[in-house]
Amino acid sequence: MDDPGAEAVDAAVREAASAGAQLIVLPELAFSGYVFESIEEARLAAQPLDGPYVTGIRRLSQETGSVIVAGFCELGEGGAVHNSAMVVQDGELLGCYRKAHLWDRESDFFTPGDAAPLVIDTAVGRLAVLICYDLEMSDWVGTAAAAGAEIIAAPCNWPLLERPAGERPLEVVKAQAVAGAFKVHIVVADRCGHERGVDWIGGSVICENTGYPAAGPATGDDGPARPVVLTADLDPASSRNKSLGPRNGVWDDRRPELYWIGCP
Amino acid sequence: MDDPGAEAVDAAVREAASAGAQLIVLPELAFSGYVFESIEEARLAAQPLDGPYVTGIRRLSQETGSVIVAGFCELGEGGAVHNSAMVVQDGELLGCYRKAHLWDRESDFFTPGDAAPLVIDTAVGRLAVLICYDLEMSDWVGTAAAAGAEIIAAPCNWPLLERPAGERPLEVVKAQAVAGAFKVHIVVADRCGHERGVDWIGGSVICENTGYPAAGPATGDDGPARPVVLTADLDPASSRNKSLGPRNGVWDDRRPELYWIGCP
Prior knowledge:
homodimer, alpha+beta, Nitrilase/N-carbamoyl-D-aminoacid amidohydrolase, six-stranded mixed sheet, four-stranded mixed sheet, C-N_Hydrolase (chains A, B)
């Protein structure tokens, strides 16, 4: 690893592993940065699944003994570029998810995924991966939860937008809401600082399946936060109990026959 | 009006109207209280649409010139009891909505509604009504938004549950999330104080279609709030613009063909 993104990833993973993290989540497009100027630039940054991004994380997962979820710029079939995230454990690539809901100029660079959310069994429990704007689609989170996800790992790059003083970013609010609504832990690793004219929220948060944060959000009122490694203890198995009280439950209470989820 | 519930409703409506409110939202089961001991007690409290609950609010709406949404215990066909909310304007009943998602012991007392969310044109814009737990079902809020709701009026009775210090109640967080996700204003009138061993959050909030509160939440960290009349200026027409940025939109970004909304 000899580029700045890879060095930052390497340092962050080692810091988290030293703190005892068994699951380590990195931001969206962790190696390359987010703000591409053209599809050509994005394609130059993209790597296939046997390229250095995945290979480097496989090595790190073996060295640290941790499950790692990292966003990266993926070079797919026929030169297509995807905003993806890998799940790596014991030096092996367990799965790769391609972001299904693209934000703003991403559709100039990336081909969206068409598959179901990635939900797989890992050493830290049944894990789903969604990327950034995906997490704002409550039905997409529900689809992952219905597939048995105990923890959702969400690499994010949340651009900093204006908000009232003292208010948590709505991106964090939405993550809390779906964590509580579907009783699933959500681990958000967000980008911080500045990049080519874009300020990032730096809103990393580890949200328990109660909907309340166990750590973070890292951001404050005064703009983008500095890089930070958040840690928390989560009980993955607790997400299997979908009860919301003596008479209520996540799935039991839904009335899908009444819902309209199309596009008017 | 000669019972305590009706007197409180009367005073609150007049206070809100004096403050210039054109839309006035009252809590769930505003007249009768929420904590019934038996179906018999609930049925005794229930009134048909030509009973004193609706008649009293019709009179108040005419006197104050305001649109009023009020939760009430409705006596339906064949003696069925419903947890309902009325929409009244210019002395006329515009519509009545029956809560579709029942919480805890409500299913002992109430027959749930099977109709779509009530969405109707009023003097203050296109108005939807959902009741309490309904608002926690993001697909139900989306169904109302898809029917053109500019404002959702939500009579609530949120029981006070334990939460971490400094955290907003998750009920408020969920309301913010769906307001922002579907770009619809949400006006929550919540119950406060104590009732037969139940503490209420008192979390009334007027949430703009940005997802951020324009007024409230009324509750603090230190238990149930006292009764309060919250007011805010909302621009109903702004909810018609579903753009979320130059390249994104509430409906355009959804991929319902990928979503699974059933019950596993």
